[in-house]
Every structure is written in C-alpha cells, then in structure tokens.
Protein: ATP-dependent DNA helicase
Organism: Branchiostoma floridae
Amino acid sequence: MMRSLNAAQMEVVRVHRKWCKDSIYALQHDQPVPQYTLFLSGPGGVGKSHVIKIIHHETIRLLQRLSGHYDPDELSVLITAFTGTAAFNINGMTLHSALGFGGGPKKSNEYKPVGSEKLHNLRLRLGKLKLLIIDECSMLGSDHLYHTHRRLEDICGTCDPDSRFGGVSILAVGDLFQLQPVGQRHVFDLPTDSYAKLHGSLWEENFTMMELTECVRQREDQDFAQLLLRMRTAECTEDDITVLKSRIISKTDPHYPSEVLHVFKTNREVDDHNKDHLQKLSTQHFHIQAIDTKKDIYTGLVDVGSYKTSNDRGLKETVSLAVGARVMVTVNIDVSDGLVNGALGKVVGIDNTQNDVHTVLVTFDSDRVGRQAMADSQYKDSYPGAVPIKRQTLPILTGSKQSVQAQRAQFPLTLAWGCTIHRVQGKTLDRIVVSMDDKSNFSDRSLSCCHEPRHDLDWSVPSRY
Ligand SMILES: Nc1ncnc2c1ncn2[C@@H]1O[C@H](COP(=O)(O)OP(=O)(O)OP(=O)(O)O)[C@@H](O)[C@H]1O
C-alpha cells in the first residue's frame, strides 16, 4: 500500500509518522503528547481517503503497539466523517455519533454539554484519543468545528483556555471548493455560538494545509480529470466548454438516459421530476403518512396525528412509493452496514395490509449496502438481495414556536429519480444528468461539486428541461 503512494501522498504520511514517533517518545517519558492540526486538501480522486486509511493503520501500528501502551480497547485514533455516506466509505463513524452530538432536534447553534453519564461513557471510550480524523470536512460548519473542540475539551477534562480540541490532534480532510454546508457557515468562518466568538476562527488560527493535486481516480483519462479540476476553480477553457456542450442531450433523443439520476438546484424541480416518474409506474402507489405522537405533560394522554415541523429530520410527512420506484435513504439507519442518508436503490416489494405499510424492500445500487440487514431479513427467501426498511422514530419539534416535542415514525425514504446538487456532493457516480434549465442556474462551482465522475461517466445535460 505504501509503495503505491505518489510523492505528495508520501509527504503527508511522512509528517504523520514523525508525529507518531514524537508521541511515542512523549508517552514513554510521561510528557504531553504533541498536537497537530492539519488540513489535507485536494479535489475528488486525488487519494485523500487512501491516505486516511494508511494514516489510520500507521497510527495503530506505531502509536499503540510501539509505545508499550497497547490496549485494544483504548482508542488512540478515530476515523469520522460528517455524513453517513462519507463515514461508511472510509469504514468510520459519523462525527455526531462518535462525539455524542446526536440526540433530539436543535433549536440553536449553541454548544450543549452532555450529561454526566454520557460524558463518563465518552471518557471511557475516547479518554486516550490522540488523533481524530474528519473526512469531507467541507460539510462541517464553523459551529460544528467549535462543538468538536468543546466536546473534546470536555472528554479530555482540559480547562486550559489556550488548549484546543482537548490536546487531541485533528486531521481534517476535504475540498473547501465544495458547496457551503447546509444552514451553516463555512468551517473557516467565525462560529455563531456566543462563547465561540471569544476564540476567533478555530480553523484559521490552528490549521496548516497540505495539498494533494495528482488525480489518481481518472488516471486513464487525464484530459477529463484536468477538465474537472478547471471546473472546480471556474477556470474552464474554450475547449472545455466545447467538450461540455458535446454532452448536451435533448429529452426527445432516443438515447436520453431518463433512468439515470437527475440533479437539480431546487427541491421543487426535484419533486416535479420524481412525481413525473412515479406516475409512469403502473404498480400500486402508496402515500404513507407519518405517525406523529405527542404526550400531554399534564394528563399523560398521547395525541396521535400529523404535525407540521420546520425540520423533519429526514422523516417526511408523506412518503410516496411504488414497486419499481428509485429511492434514497434519508436517515442514517446503520452506518456500519452502509444504510446511510443518501444510499440509493430501488423498491422491489412493499409488505402491507389494507391499513398500513409494514416494510419496504429495497435493492441498493451498491452491494456493500445492507449486507447485515439482508442476512437478518425475514424476507431473504421471498426477496433475495433486498433490504427490509422499517419506519424509524425520531423526535421532532412542532407547534407555532416549534417548542413542542413530538415523536415521528416514518419510512426514512424519498423518491430519487432526481435529487438536489447538495445530495450528490461527495458521491461517486458513474452517470448523472444535470438539469441546465434556466431555473436551475447552476454556478460552475456547483457543477464541479457534483464531482467524482469516473472516466466512463456519461454526463448528460438536457438542452431543455
Ligand atoms: N497512490 C495511489 N495509487 C493507486 N491508486 C490510488 C492511489 N491513491 C488512491 N488510489 C485509488 O484512487 C481512487 C480514488 O482515491 P480516493 O477515493 O482515496 O480519492 P479521494 O481524494 O478521497 O476522493 P473523494 O474526495 O472523492 O473521496 C481509489 O480507488 C483509490 O484506491
């Protein structure tokens, strides 16, 4: 694995190895372990995830075993990513579940400390953490970074005002040319949290950058790789424009790839596209209502209904489905099994009685997704290769001031013949259709963010949508 690294990748690993050796010396001499905060930058396909895997392996090999402090239950390095999809790709956890940020719906961006029992459990697991790796850090907002700092301070019991991230080293990996995190400031901006303002930008003040630039994914098609790099920085040449225009296709073209994932800018365009496709299916259509429950704090009576919320947390009020529908998972059901927010598949069965749908059976595009769920499935003989998806229950906020807590039970699915550009960020797709309708008004940057196409990408742009 190490021998295949190019010079820039090797340099990152060399810097990390030096830190491992310095840390071993510190551990052996009862000194504080040195800290580094590094941003590993680079566009898609330059081997950032590859380097993460090597660094993870090297840290365990060098730091845990050679320091003479080896304890298999003691985590010295943790791989995380902001989204479930990114976490699954690198065999990691989401940052939220790793640091216990999960929990209920949030009304503000202020940092919330965890209760003593949860903190005790976090300390047992992460009290010896030396390195936290955060992949796809462009999706991390400045408040998320601040919360990570505070949570690590809490876990490590640090009260030195000059300490950052509890003394834990941070390797943040990603491409800041990607889209701004949804509802958050960029990771390098000032956080909104009122205490955080005392710190300034944790990113600007602490992180140094190393960059990978050689594209290793599209090696066989360097021209295409270079075109994508120029799109990323909005520096397309005339030739690039000609190549891109050659991919424009009319919806009436007999080769129009209507089944390929369509990418739009707005939710309304996505909904229209998905409804169009659903209507074409001759199988029975189901419009499944969320089951919302709310308990009266005075009487204890449970009220069942369907409530309005400004943040459905991925559980829609109504989920429309039919056998044959393309769908996307909208909640992280089981990250280690790849059943993550963003996983794409097709409905192959719907187990229902007259009154209710019990289970939706989905075959996923990636055979890595849902292997465990399939092995445990009661439907494995009747629907081989299908993953049973059940309703998930999450707390939501409702009421005129969004101050009443309710529970929503709903299938964590949405139709996915089309989706917004934000939903494909960080995905590796063989083919996409990008709607270039006037309404979509994509910037060059948005388009290059829907990156990761491989050399054989069929990147189609309908001339009129
Ligand atoms: N030095 C290398 N030699 C050969 N193959 C490599 C090398 N580095 C990475 N690869 C391979 O290139 C492909 C892309 O690498 P990787 O997924 O690590 O890129 P990335 O920068 O993380 O991309 P993304 O931002 O899309 O996640 C992978 O299949 C990986 O195994």
About this structure: Residues 443-459 have pLDDT under 50 and may be disordered. The two ends are 46 Å apart (CA to CA).
